[in-house]
Amino acid sequence: MASLLATFSIHKALDERGEEIPVVPQFSAGVTVFVECLLSIYQSADILLFSHPETFPCRIVPRFRDASAERLTQLVGEQ
Asked: Given a cut of 80, is residue 43 above it in pLDDT?
């Protein structure tokens, strides 16, 4: 996650006129994959109710001008 945030800048999405679309935070209750891991540790479903953000439009923009796929791979350290 740190590499992603260091390499890209995340902005609000733009509408057809180029204006920012406001983000209205919305969450849905649910169980995540992480729950199965916790179940094996805690043996209780009472503490395993998680909420997670709904999807929303955004723009993910490289922070560097020479942001080719090869260059971004070098910055992130992936091979």
From this structure: no
By residue range, what is the domain housing residue 62? Answer: 2-76
The three-state secondary structure class of 69 is helix
DSSP codes, 30-62: E--THHHHHHHHH--STT--EEEEPP--EEEEE
| pLDDT of res. 62 | 84
* Tally of domains within the chain: 1
Q: Looking at the predicted structure, is the pLDDT value of residue 3 above 90?
A: no
Q: What is the dihedral of CA 39, 43, 44, 45, to 10 degrees?
A: 30
pTM, two decimal places = 0.53
Q: Give the Cα separation of 5 and 10 in Å (integer).
A: 8
